[in-house]
Amino acid sequence: MRAKEFVINIPINIKFNGDGEPEIAVNNQTPIDDEELSSNFIPPLQQKIELMKHAAGKDSDVIDQIITVDDDDESV
Questions:
Q1: How far from chain centre, in Å, is Cα 41?
Q2: Which of 4, 24, 51, 62 lies 20 to 30 A from 34 at CA?
């Protein structure tokens, strides 16, 4: 199958309120909040690079995200 044969339809609803913050909803789901957007996927090789930067003394939000342990992950 060729790439041009793929069809991707993602129904999305964007509502602009008076406060300037848009509400984004997909398939009648609840709007996406900022907390969900702040936890991005970081590929393993990038994680390794960020951890090496941390060892060299650099601080960033990405490093904090990598080294923070989630409560859900502790049970595994």
A1: 5
A2: 51
